[in-house]
Structure formats: C-alpha cells, structure tokens
C-alpha cells in the first residue's frame, strides 16, 4: 500500500520561506513521478509542481515559477517543495501525490490531478500579509 506523508507546513509572513517534505512508502519510490498540488478554501485543487522519476524533468505552475523548487532524494524516499518569496495567495493545503504509472509520454499529464492515484493527507501553509 502506497503511503504519502507530508510535513513542513506552518504560518509564515509575506515574503518568507518554507520547505515541505513528503515521505513515501509502500513501493520503490525512485521509479515514479511525484507531484505537489494545493487547495485553498472555496477553490478547486490546483497543480503546483511535479517531476519525473529521475528528477531530470520538472514542471511548475506559472504562479509559482521562479519561487518554488521541487526536488527529490530517492535514498530517503522523499520529495521536497522549497517555497520562497511566499505570498498570501499561496495560502492553501498542500498535497503530494504520485501515480500508478511510472512514465507519461505526454508531459501534460504531470499537470492533471486526475492522473495521480495516491495522495497524502495534506499540510497547511498560511502566509500572513
């Protein structure tokens, strides 16, 4: 059974930084894509960032490009989301996710929440103005 556990959320001021972690278990972590999504109150879940199994390909939402960085440590079965220059509009519950598929031929799949099969419980990020 695949299990994802996020940590690292919290309250930070406008312009601050946080690093989220997501530890995976239940299968060989290093051979699957990983993604981060977020959901703000009253809004739909949206894509934030993703990467392929090796970390050689990364994908970002336009709203976070240049501020957030996704990375992975396959030895620790962990994916990270470094968030810098945080803004109040970044306030949301952040989820990590991973699919059943090991590879997507079309990069567009990385952006679609419906392509991911396993989800963590989420971690709250609140950015105060």
What can be said about this structure in brief?
The protein is mainly beta. It has strands at about 5, 10-15, 20-25, 35-40, 45-50, 60, 70-75, 80-85, 90-100, 120, 125-129. The mean pLDDT is about 95.
Provide a descriptive summary of the structure in words.
It contains no helices and eleven strands. The termini are far apart. The protein is an all-beta fold and 129 residues long. The strands form two sheets. Strands 2, 4, 5, 6, 9, 10 and 11 form a seven-stranded mixed β-sheet that branches. The protein has a four-stranded antiparallel β-sheet with strand order 1-3-8-7, with no helix packed on it. Helix content is 0%, strand content 46%. The protein is globular and about 40 Å long.
Helices and strands, with pairings:
Layout: E1 3-7, E2 10-13, E3 18-25, E4 34-39, E5 46-51, E6 58-60, E7 68-73, E8 78-83, E9 92-98, E10 118-119, E11 123-128
Parallel strand pairs: 2-11
Antiparallel strand pairs: 1-3, 3-8, 4-5, 4-9, 5-6, 7-8, 9-10, 9-11
Elements, N to C (H/E): EEEEEEEEEEE
What best-fitting shape do the alpha-carbon axes yield?
Answer: globular
In whole angstroms, how far apart are the ends?
A: 40 Å
The overall strand count is: 11
- List low-confidence stretches: none
Number of helices: 0
* Average pLDDT reading: 95
């Amino acid at each position: 059974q695949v299990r994802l556990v996020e940590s690292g959320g919290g309250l930070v001021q406008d312009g601050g930084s946080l690093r989220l972690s997501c530890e995976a278990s239940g299968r060989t972590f290093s051979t699957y894509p990983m993604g981060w999504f977020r959901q703000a109150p009253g809004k739909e879940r949206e894509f934030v960032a993703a990467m392929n199994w090796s970390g050689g390909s990364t994908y970002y939402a336009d709203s976070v490009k240049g501020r957030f960085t996704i990375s992975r440590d396959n030895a620790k079965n962990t994916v990270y989301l470094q968030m810098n220059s945080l803004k109040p509009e970044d306030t949301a519950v952040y989820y990590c996710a991973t699919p059943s598929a090991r590879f997507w031929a079309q990069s567009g799949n990385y952006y679609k929440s419906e392509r991911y099969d396993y989800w963590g419980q989420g971690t709250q990020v609140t950015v105060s103005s």
